[in-house]
């Protein structure tokens, strides 16, 4: 139907404008208050950053440790199982930031546990596992993320498809179910190379034994042992759980997401039933090609190397440029910068239309396709 605007509509609109103008003119404008109790409470409960220290370290496997992080004088902010924090990490005068899922239950806000597995050539994971001791201090941000169970959106049965250290947010969910903070049935298919690499195995077995809402199966790719499935998490294994009855929570490295996305397509699983732990690189096909990144901040200009398969923010980090950032996954907007020249491949999920129109990007999820120049926002 064609819209038509009559003269009486225009008159009405004119009057609305006048009424609005009068309302604006008569508004109370003295002493605008910014310290509303609710805002103050929110700032206290969810501060931008929290200073913590390592209160305990537990060796989980040869290559994984759990670090308990505590705040000196207060409890940690509330969080939902599946959330992550960002850890600021100072090494040789440079600040690195890394996202880690909280593996502890949301019931005990005395501390957060993060469980870190060694990444080959990973600066931060190797330093955490080799050099960090009880008593060492860090700054963290968060908790963030939407890899959480929601009874409104998700089915009451969840099939968690896990590879390697992807078990950490799922472990928080299992603990939360056991602590009666979450109410859904969780079946975990947990893939690893060998039995000795399985993190939390004893506790997972215990939780599955005492809680009928938790079930766990282990799939080993490099060992054929009694009581364990052998190979990789497969289409056939997923089909063993009635299609249409489950929400699928996927947690693991990029190749695992790619592989399962293909499986879900073959099985016609609707996207609304699939949840991924945030990991933005999973969507992009990139190559290890060297480019240069010029970063302008006020009067300063610095040029650093940047590979096509690493986000601009990581290149800045490696080049010693301290750029504003918090979440590292394109959500918070703290790293928002103007792209002055060059081409990037970027995750645009969280960019405003106006940002895209005026060439603003989030360097934490933007990858160079040529030499690139950006201006950091102040
Ligand atoms: S650090 Fe949060 S959007 Fe880039």
Jot down its keywords.
378 residues; alpha/beta; Elongation Factor Tu (Ef-tu), domain 3; Ubiquitin-like (UB roll); 6-stranded antiparallel beta sheet; 6-stranded parallel beta sheet; 31% strand; globular; binds FE2/S2 (inorganic) cluster
Report on the structure:
By secondary structure, the protein is an alpha/beta fold. It folds into three domains: 43-144, Elongation Factor Tu (Ef-tu), domain 3 (Beta Barrel), CATH 2.40.30; 157-278, 3-Layer(aba) Sandwich (Rossmann fold); 290-376, Beta-grasp domain (Ubiquitin-like (UB roll), Roll), CATH 3.10.20.30. Helices cover 24% and strands 31% of the residues. The chain has nine helices and 19 strands. It has helices at 7-25, 37-45, 123-131, 167-178, 201-210, 235-239, 254-266, 312-318, 353-357; strands spanning 50-61, 64-70, 84-91, 94-101, 112-117, 137-144, 157-163, 185-192, 214-220, 229-230, 246-251, 274-276, 290-297, 300-307, 337-341, 344-346, 360-361, 366-368, 372-376. The strands form four sheets. Strands 4-3-6-1-2-5 form a six-stranded antiparallel beta sheet. The protein has a six-stranded parallel beta sheet with strand order 10-9-8-7-11-12, sandwiched between helices. It has a five-stranded mixed beta sheet with strand order 14-13-19-15-17. A hairpin with a 2-residue loop joins strand 13 (290-297) and strand 14 (300-307). FE2/S2 (inorganic) cluster binds at residues 325-328, 330-335, 362, 364.
């Amino acid at each position: 139907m064609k819209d038509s605007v009559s003269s009486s509509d225009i008159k009405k609109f004119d009057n609305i404008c006048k009424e609005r103008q009068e309302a604006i003119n008569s508004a109370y404008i003295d002493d605008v208050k910014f310290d509303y109790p609710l805002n103050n409470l929110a700032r206290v409960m969810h501060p931008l950053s929290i200073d913590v220290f390592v209160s305990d370290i537990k060796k989980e496997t040869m290559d994984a440790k759990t670090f308990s992080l505590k705040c000196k004088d207060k409890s940690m902010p509330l969080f939902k199982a599946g959330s992550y924090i960002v850890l600021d990490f100072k090494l040789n005068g440079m600040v690195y930031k890394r996202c880690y899922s909280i593996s502890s239950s949301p019931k005990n806000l005395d501390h957060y546990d993060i469980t870190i597995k060694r990444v080959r050539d990973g600066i931060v994971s190797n330093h955490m596992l080799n050099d960090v001791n009880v008593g060492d201090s860090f700054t963290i941000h968060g908790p963030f993320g939407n890899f959480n169970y929601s009874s409104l959106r998700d089915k009451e049965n969840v099939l968690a498809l896990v590879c390697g250290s992807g078990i950490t947010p799922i472990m928080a969910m299992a603990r939360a179910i056991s602590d009666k903070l979450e109410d859904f049935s969780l079946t975990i298919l947990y893939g690893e190379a060998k039995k000795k690499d399985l993190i939390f195995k004893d506790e997972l077995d215990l939780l599955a034994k005492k809680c009928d809402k938790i079930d766990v199966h282990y799939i080993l790719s490099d060992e054929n042992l009694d009581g364990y499935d052998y190979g990789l998490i497969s289409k056939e294994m997923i089909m063993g759980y009635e299609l249409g009855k489950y929400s699928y929570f996927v947690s693991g490295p990029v190749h695992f997401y790619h592989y399962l996305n293909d499986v879900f397509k073959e099985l016609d699983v609707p996207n609304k039933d699939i949840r991924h732990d945030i990991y933005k690189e999973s969507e992009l096909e990139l190559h290890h090609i060297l480019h240069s990144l010029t970063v302008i901040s006020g009067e300063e200009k610095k040029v650093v190397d940047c590979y096509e398969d690493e986000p601009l923010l990581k290149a800045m980090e490696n080049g010693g440029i301290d750029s504003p950032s918090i979440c590292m996954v394109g959500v918070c907007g703290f790293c928002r910068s103007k792209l002055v020249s060059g081409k990037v491949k970027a995750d645009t999920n969280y960019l405003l239309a106006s940002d895209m129109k005026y060439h603003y990007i989030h360097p934490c999820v933007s990858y160079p396709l040529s030499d690139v120049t950006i201006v950091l926002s102040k």
